[in-house]
UniProtKB/TrEMBL annotation:
Positions of the DNA-binding region: 13-32
Organism: Streptomyces parvus
DNA-binding in keyword set: yes
One Pfam family this sequence matches: TetR_N
Family annotation (InterPro entries): BetI_C, Homeodomain-like_sf, HTH-type_TetR-like_transc_reg, HTH_TetR, Tet_transcr_reg_TetR-rel_C_sf
Keywords: DNA-binding, Repressor, Transcription, Transcription regulation
Domain HTH tetR-type: 1-50
Name of the protein this chain belongs to: TetR family transcriptional regulator
GO-annotated molecular function: DNA-binding transcription factor activity; transcription cis-regulatory region binding
């Protein structure tokens, strides 16, 4: 992740990474077989850390809306060239040629985010904080919105910085989840 943050994925070579971690590129290939596997394993490692943060923020006291806003804050990239999101974009791009196992591992990561969001929406609905909606469908729509905005933030599309996206997401939540909203 440090190499991705410093050089971006274009600058990530097996030889360069090997130098950074004190291994030969051959050793890296022995452990990871391919650059695709190295990238996916790095993503899994990064997601395991984010997953722990996500579970902690979802378990803390507060309203469902407050925790939903915290979830969104964790989900979104920190800014342009965010290394975690840069890695996601690369893995997504390589997925079309990935094998079934790699796609299943990626789906497992995405599934954890989705299940947690569905549970949070269902909790907010049951408490009357959110209007009655299909929690699974709403979670899919919200994640698609966040993914799209996250791509814009990560690649640096003007007018789509993190603060603008947080404001857009809050507006979307007001329009779709606030009881009595049209």
């Amino acid at each position: 992740m440090a190499t991705i943050a410093e050089r971006g994925l274009d600058g990530l070579t097996m030889a360069g990474l090997g130098r950074d971690v004190g291994m030969s590129s051959g050793h890296l290939l022995y452990y990871f077989r391919t650059k695709d596997e190295l990238l996916l394993r790095t993503l899994e490692w990064s997601e395991s850390r984010l997953g722990a943060e996500r579970r902690a923020l979802l378990a803390r006291p507060g309203s469902a809306r407050e925790r939903l806003e915290a979830y969104i804050g964790l989900y979104l990239p920190a800014g342009h060239r965010d290394p975690h999101w840069t890695l996601w974009l690369e893995v997504w791009g390589r997925s079309q040629n990935a094998d079934d196992d790699a796609r299943a591992r990626q789906a497992a990561i995405e599934g954890a985010w989705h299940r947690d969001l569905v549970a949070l929406l269902a909790e907010g609905i049951s408490r009357g904080e959110f209007r009655p909606v299909d929690a699974d469908r709403s979670a899919a729509r919200l994640r698609a919105l966040l993914d799209g905005f996250s791509i814009h933030v990560t690649v640096g599309i003007p007018g789509t910085g993190r603060e603008q996206v947080l404001a857009q997401a809050a507006e979307f939540l007001d329009e779709t989840l606030t009881p009595g909203a049209a």
